[in-house]
């Protein structure tokens, strides 16, 4: 091939794909996201929680200090990078650390206590991608900061459970509950664990062998079969809990029972993060347990002080939105298809288009979800398009209609149509769609 011909031939590059472990949220899944957000907002608002959004990245130490160097998240899963001035930053792997940093930074301890906050945000972990495990995923979470009382832990658990119930998936999860006591309780227990595992290291998986020195609690929730068997035989944390921790836990259980919330006592539940104290809980899939936990949380009374604030008790909960959606689909739960169009406006010619543009605006102002075929296609082709968009009605304005000041309204399901006066189109369509189906959401009134 002559050289200049070779140069003209465009290079075929393969199309780009999403980076490993991340995914697009396509319109159909957005309907689920929107529904879940609405449920979360509604239940949180009812309970006096207010929304907070912290930055997507923080100084790396915010996570290192709070989540703990020995946790899987900090040791293996963080997206950490330096900015142009060499400062170490990390994409947030979870929500609590940032919220606590914000509580301290903005002096929220001077607000009426407890401060109740919630968030709905994306998070980032360098996890091994698999079903239900991504490198960017969404969570919603709730935090109650400023007071310690088992009734508050019970409240968080109640709201979490209520939200799962609203989403139609509460029945496929069990609430796993444990107390990991205070950090003093745990110091003695961790020594007992190390003593127990002494001489048994060879039966442990590689991860557990390295956890034994740094974070022996984590050996209890390892998923490897041999480690699980040993964990069952290991000393029980409950035998090392102080009287105060035990009483706290008993009171929490009383409150849960009072509210009709079922739970399973799980003495090996520890959660992966260092900052928990006393109450820890997770919602486990009834069929495959911890592998597909949908969310979890607990009390973190020492964290605010650890992060440089005054000693302040707190508790929280977070759940994964992708896993919620997967479970809703598994349960065949459909959500309102709020994006579905009501009306398609088809037209022919420039004069018709002039009539259509204000009509489309008018329909939309009246809560009718309207799409205009504003290209140059023939009416027939536009009607075929209307069919593809599955609209119930099409408004047609052709040359005759322009001349006569009318419009045709076509019922797409049966194929019948009628001619109405142009100025009556909006009222006619409202009647057909039904007042209750109009999309008249209003954000409330601002004061100007
Ligand atoms: P965690 O704080 O690790 O217990 O996470 C709370 C919830 O977030 C989990 O129960 C999951 O539903 C969700 N989650 C955590 N990590 C991921 C991930 N890599 N991909 C998708 N969802 C996740």
Shape: elongated
For the largest beta sheet, what order do the strands appear in spatially?
1-5-6-11-10-9-7-8
Unreliable parts = none
Q: Architecture of the largest domain, CATH level 2?
A: 2-Layer Sandwich
Strand content: 15-25%
The CATH class name of the largest domain reads Alpha Beta
Total of DSSP H or I helical runs spanning 4+ residues: 16
Q: Please state the CA-atom Rg, rounded to the nearest Å.
A: 29 Å
Please name the fourth-level CATH homologous superfamily of the largest domain: Bira Bifunctional Protein, Domain 2
Secondary-structure class:
alpha+beta
Query: Which ions and ligands are bound to the chains?
Result: adenosine monophosphate
What's the CATH topology name of the largest domain?
BirA Bifunctional Protein, domain 2
Helix coverage percent: 25-40%
For the largest beta-sheet, the strand count, sense and barrel status come to: 8 strands, mixed
Mean pLDDT: 93
* Domains (count): 2
Number of strands: 16
Termini separation (Å)? 70 Å
């Amino acid at each position: 091939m002559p050289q200049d011909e070779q140069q003209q031939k465009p290079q075929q590059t393969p199309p780009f794909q999403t980076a490993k472990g991340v995914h697009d949220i396509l319109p159909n899944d957005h309907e689920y996201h929107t529904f879940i957000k609405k449920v979360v907002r509604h239940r949180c608002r009812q309970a006096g929680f207010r929304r907070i959004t912290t930055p997507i990245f923080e100084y790396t130490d915010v996570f290192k200090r709070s989540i703990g160097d020995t946790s899987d998240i900090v040791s293996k899963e963080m997206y950490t990078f330096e900015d142009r001035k060499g400062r170490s930053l990390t994409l947030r792997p979870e929500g609590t650390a940032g919220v606590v940093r914000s509580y301290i930074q903005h002096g929220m301890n001077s607000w009426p206590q407890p401060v109740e906050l919630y968030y709905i945000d994306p998070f980032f972990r360098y996890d091994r991608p698999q079903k239900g495990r991504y490198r960017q995923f969404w969570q919603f979470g709730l935090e109650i900061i400023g007071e310690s009382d088992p009734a508050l832990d019970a409240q968080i658990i109640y709201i979490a459970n209520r939200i799962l119930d609203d989403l139609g998936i509460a029945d496929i999860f069990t609430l796993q509950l444990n107390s990991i006591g205070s950090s003093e309780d745990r110091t003695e227990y961790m020594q007992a664990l190390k003593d127990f595992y002494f001489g048994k290291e060879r039966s442990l998986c590689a991860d557990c062998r390295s956890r034994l020195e740094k974070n022996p609690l984590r050996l209890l929730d390892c998923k490897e079969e041999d480690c699980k068997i040993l964990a069952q035989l290991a000393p029980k944390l409950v035998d090392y809990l102080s009287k105060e921790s035990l009483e706290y836990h008993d009171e929490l259980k009383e409150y849960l029972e009072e509210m009709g919330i079922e739970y399973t006592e799980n003495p090996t539940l520890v959660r992966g993060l260092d900052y928990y104290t006393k109450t820890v809980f997770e919602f486990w899939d009834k069929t495959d347990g911890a592998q597909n936990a949908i969310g979890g949380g607990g009390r973190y009374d020492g964290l605010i002080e650890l992060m440089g604030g005054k000693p302040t008790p707190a508790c929280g909960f977070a759940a994964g939105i992708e896993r919620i959606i997967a479970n809703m689909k598994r349960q065949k739960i459909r959500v309102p298809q709020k994006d579905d169009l009501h009306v398609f406006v088809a037209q022919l010619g420039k004069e018709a288009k002039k009539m259509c543009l204000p009509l489309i605006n008018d329909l939309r102002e009246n809560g009718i979800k309207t799409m205009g075929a504003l290209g140059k296609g023939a009416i027939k082709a536009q009607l075929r398009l209307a069919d593809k968009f599955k609209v119930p009605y099409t408004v047609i304005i052709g040359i005759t209609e322009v001349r006569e000041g009318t419009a045709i309204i076509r019922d797409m399901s049966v194929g019948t149509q009628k001619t109405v006066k142009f100025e009556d189109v909006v009222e006619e369509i409202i009647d057909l769609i039904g007042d209750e189906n109009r999309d008249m959401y209003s954000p409330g009134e601002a004061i100007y």
